[in-house]
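Hi there,

I know you've been waiting on this one. I reran it after we fixed the sequence typo, so this is the corrected version. Both the input and the resulting structure follow.
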Amino acid sequence: MNLKKRVPSGREKDEKQIELLERLREKAYCDNPSAARHASFNLSWMQEDGLDILKEALYSNANRATKGAAAYGLRKMRGRMKNLAMVLLIEGCKHENEGTRQVCARALLLEKESKQPAQQQPQSSQTPPRFQQKPRFRISEIPGRRPQSRSPRFGGRRPPDEQESRFNR
């Protein structure tokens, strides 16, 4: 997709940041949904500049993958931009473009579901029957073998009178 040159907002600190924003903007408009989502997630960390680019992508005539990625980036916004991103998604539900309306409605639904706590299944007061049975046998310790006493005088060997010669058999 041929994108017009982005006009710097004046908030960028240096030329390097302007180039980074331009690269992420191009990736957000790519046809590969995975790359577009990754770029949108990175833009979500860039506060106002990222919000501007994601807003532009969401409300443009881009393909559905780009709009979905932009909505994903808006959902992942953190900090002071989170409320502005939610307002953009709510406004997107009233947009004239059908794709934008669907993407924004889905993003708001996903955001609402993520905020609800997971429903816990009610736990019964009774324990399952397999744990109520008494054990059939008692488990006891198996005594270990005691080490043989070794005499330091013979270097760990038995005294000569206790040794059996292999020739005496």
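Quick highlight: The first helix runs from residue 15 to 28.

Best,
R. S.
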